[in-house]
Amino acid sequence: MPYITKNPTFGDSVSSGDLIWIYCRGCLREFEICATAMPPGIPHATLFPDIVKYLRCGTCGSKRIWVMPEVHRGGFILARARQGSPRALVVRTPADDRN
Fold it and tell me: What is the pTM of this model?
């Protein structure tokens, strides 16, 4: 895990093109999305714990969201797949919902 010397902001993830892990505590869905694909209107100076104020689950409508910057290169889902975790197989992305 990389050593973080300051509180990461949304803008840090946008500028580096990192993934953002989003987990809904309402319906227990999770997915990863590139920071550049996040909804518009989130100020780049926003600290990660405060990003949740701008989000709502698209499935259940809950605002009980947990957000983390990418800590595993390639994302959490890829890290779980490398370990053979069955959770890696049930994760859906927003693109899956459009089909």
Answer: 0.65
Q: What's the domain range around 36?
A: 10-98
Asked whether residue 24 is domain-assigned, the answer is yes
Buried b or exposed e, range 32-55, using 16+ CB within 10 angstroms: bbebeebeeebeeeeebeebeebb
The pLDDT tens digits for 37-82 are: 888 888 999 998 898 888 888 888 899 988 888 766 666 666 666 6
Which spans in the chain are helix H? 10-16, 76-83, 94-98
Residue 4, in any domain of the structure: no
Residue 51 lies in a domain: yes
